[in-house]
Each structure stands twice: as structure tokens, then as C-alpha cells.
């Protein structure tokens, strides 16, 4: 038995001798990357479905100033998302979603700063930046909760839509949106809003939970004892991915 | 354990260059997002506007994945294992948008 044990460094390691990390990344990091690729497929499935539905539906043809909500064409997003908390009745297109984007980018920066502090085994800074990241995550979730609440309850006036009820066309005032009715446009538009931002929000939520776990473990000295802060890096990859998905959702759902 | 801590804390300037790169990336992302807002309200709707938005999104994605997720500094084989599936996904998105357009023409034209 003892004869088989080699002294570290006694033999020069070669490719197929074992003990070499493929792609020079640790097992956990590599698996996180491949998980993220599979998660990309799920999100792209949602975006592909959105693109197909949008291109198979009439777009609003007139000027943006003449726009009014109708289920006969796809709405202009800046006309849908124009509400900001505490500023009731004032039209501020895309301002709130802009603030949300900024919060998520800023929390991504504090996350990468925590990873960088982890490389230096700088526990105090890992804790500080993890707390900022957690705060950013919760703020984003709070913003999203408000946005959903506003989207579901709708505007004061609602919009008059022609819908089929009991087999006949009827005029009906619709307030807000759910999975079958939508005051902002065709019901499919609201469905995609709920599914895409909801799926992303779920990811943010699980990211915040993981971030809290990382904060707890660094604060209790777990990673110091282990001698490595690599877990911060792995969870960091996940958190940046969530930010990345938002960049795409922001463009394809709110801007285009 | 305390020994490990001591060794790593010797140089207060360690990682200063990395932190600089992080903040630089932050400003690039912020400026691009601000530009997207300006374009959203100044450029008339059309193919040009959509193309500009898509290009800016890809640039932002490049900085997030390359710098924040550190992929730019990984081995080539890892970079390609991530990029190749993404290229197929981009094709799928394009193909189904064309398909959606065909559905539109069949129903409404």
C-alpha cells in the first residue's frame, strides 16, 4: 500500500494521469457553467415563444402619440410601463424599469467585488459586499412586486375592449391584466409578461437565498476554515447570469 | 488558520487592478443602458432601432459574461463550450421569428 503512494511533485503530471482539472476550472465551477447553459435554454425557449407570438400578431401601425390600448394589435411597451411608485397618474415611460435595471447591474458589481475580496481571503470585505448584493436583490424583488401589482390592478380608467362573451361580440371595460384578460393588449402579451418576468424573478429570489447562505458561511468563518472562498465565485456566476437574463428581458420585452 | 489570513493580508494593494477593471465594466454597462434610454425616445421605430438595441444588448452581455463571469480569462475550450450552444440558440430565435412572420402573413395578409 505504502509503495503506491507517490510524493506530491515527484512525478510530473500529464494529461491522462488523473488529478488534472478539465478546462482548468474546478469541478464545482464547471458544473455551474453547464447548469447556466441549460438554464439559458429554458430562458431562450420563453424568448423564442415570445418572438414567434409577437411576429405572428399585428403590430400597432400608427404614430406613438395616437396609441391606445386594444386587443387587436400588440402594444408599444413604453405605453404599458409608465407608472412609478408615489407618482400616481404621471406618465413616466420606462423610468421604473430603468431604475430596476440599474439596481441589478449595481448588485452584480458588488457581487464581483465580493468575489475579488474572496480571492484575497479578505473576510470583512466579502461580508460587506455580500450584504450590499443581498440588499440589491431584495430591492429588485420589491420593485418587481410593485410592478406586478400595478400591472394586475391596471389604470384608473381601464380600457374598453371588444371581446367574445357567450359566443357573441361584446364591449367590455377591462381593468388590469390576468392570464385571460388584459387591458394593455392581447391576453398573450400579459401571459408572456407574467411568465418571463415571473421566471426571472424566481431566479432572483433563489439567488438572494444563496447569497444569504454565502454571507452566513463567510460571517461564521466557514470559508476561512476551509481555506478557500471559491463558493462565493460559484454563486457569483449564478448571480451574474440572473443579471444577464435581465439585460435580454429588458431589451426584448421593454425596449423593442 | 490565522497564519493563512496573515499571509494573504500582507499586500493591501493586491487585486487593485482587478477592482479597477470591475468599476470600468460597471461604467460601460451604465453608459450603454443610459444610451438605450435616449435611443428609445429619440430614434423613430423601425429596423434600424431594433438592430441598434440588439447590438447594444450583445455588447452588454459580452461585458457581463467576459468580465464579471470571468469567461474571457478562462481556457479556450471552456469559452467555446459556452459560445457554440448560444450561436445555435440565436439561430433558433431568428428561425422562429421568421416562422411567426409566415404565420402572420397566412392569417392577416
TrEMBL record, chain A:
It is a multi-pass membrane protein. Residues 1-256 form the Heme-copper oxidase subunit III family profile domain. This is Cytochrome c oxidase subunit 3. Its EC number is 1.9.3.1. The keyword DNA-binding does not apply. Belongs to the cytochrome c oxidase subunit 3 family. GO terms for molecular function: oxidoreductase activity. The keyword Coiled coil does not apply. The lineage of its organism: Bacteria, Pseudomonadati, Bacteroidota, Cytophagia, Cytophagales. It is found in: Cell membrane. The chain crosses the membrane at residues 30-50, 94-117, 129-149, 192-216, 237-255.
TrEMBL record, chain B:
The keyword Transmembrane helix applies. InterPro entries: Cyt_c_oxidase_su4_prok. Its main location: membrane. Keywords: Cell membrane, Membrane, Transmembrane, Transmembrane helix. The keyword Cell wall biogenesis/degradation does not apply. It is found in: Cell membrane. It is a multi-pass membrane protein. The chain crosses the membrane at residues 21-42, 48-66, 78-98. This is Caa(3)-type oxidase subunit IV.
